[in-house]
Amino acid sequence: MTGTTGADLSREYAALTDTFASRRYFRKFGAITRHMARVAGVMEAEGRLSAREVKILTRYVTAISFTFRALSMKYLLAGRDTGQFFGSLQIDTVESGFPVFNELLVMANDAVQAPKHLAGMADVPTLKDQMLRKIVGDRELPTRLQFALSQRLYYEELARGDLFWARNDPQAVWLAGEERRRYLLHWAVYDSQINLPTIYLMEVEDSGRVALPKDERRWPEVQAHLMGQSMGALKLVTIATGFDRYFNNLHPKRLRRFHVGPMYSNSYTSQSGPLREVLAEAGSPEGQDWALAWTTEELESERVEAEKVGWFTTAEREIFALDPFSGRGVDTGATRTERAIILPERPFQVLAERAPAGFAQVRKFVVGAGGRVLSY
User: Fold this and answer.
1) Could you name the domain of life of the organism this protein comes from (predicted)?
2) Whether 71 contacts 28, CB under 8 Å
3) Are 194 and 120 part of one and the same domain?
4) Residue 68 and residue 95: Cα distance in Å, rounded?
5) Among 1-5, 160-164, 167-171, 345-349, where is mean pLDDT lowest?
6) How many helices (H) and strands (E) does the chain have?
7) Is 8 part of a structural domain of the chain?
8) Residues 110 and 195 in one domain
9) What is the mean pLDDT of the chain?
10) Which residues lie below 8 Å from residue 59, measured CB to CB, with a gap of 6+?
């Protein structure tokens, strides 16, 4: 099926119109998000992430899982005759394997109106009692009551909050310093071009007089600026340099971007390439037929130079270190880029046997028995 995501009119996506396929899809992502949190723990144990960074990343991964849980309630009766004209979850089958961007926009609008919807709905015990009466008394499947209950649960999930939205505005965590304070800024977006969650971490030194989060002028400007630059098509060096030049008393020392996905699955996606071939050969049972890519881009400041910004004043300007290998730094706009993949044991065994070109330098996180994650 071909449709639009609000960003690319030629992008292909599919509607999960079958009830059981839809539920399997959400169960699959529920498991994947749990494994992602374990991967972050492994990276902390290896010293690649700090405890603070793991806590932040885990919070975003948990928010992604809450978003999927809410959508699973919304589309619980997909493909069933509910007496309503009701759509099905739209997923990007070619690029990401995730829901399309428009699903999150609609969800955000629903969240604003959730209290009003909940006030006009019967509560959960009442709906369950009505369902029981329908089954016992009328000997009918209470499909419409099931639909009403699913929507009630959907709006309850939205009302609880802490979901991953299309835009997750920047927050600041104090790291160190008094006169020259150091903060870790973090924010996230759901990239509308590729339908993937993207998480940003930026370490910033603040030489301003007022602490950044308490500065009523700078902090809103910083939040708006960062959200306006949070596009996957922009290189990290472009984002960091623009920030450095716009705010003379804020100095970005390190910027990282985490791309969560794509998700590959023979059951739901049609991406081409080695991973699809690996999954097809593995022939894994339901729940094991998947692989999730995870890409980390990192940009670090190498040194500082003074630049004249007025008649009598100068400002520090960061000179960022770009990847020195193969002259790719200018192309990537990052100091380093690391690609990783999370997958179950059986697909990993096939991947190791086939050893396709380009995967030697990809980190492999393998999910074993009991959900244990091992790093290769």
Assistant:
1) Bacteria
2) no
3) no
4) 18
5) 1-5
6) 11, 11
7) no
8) no
9) 88
10) none
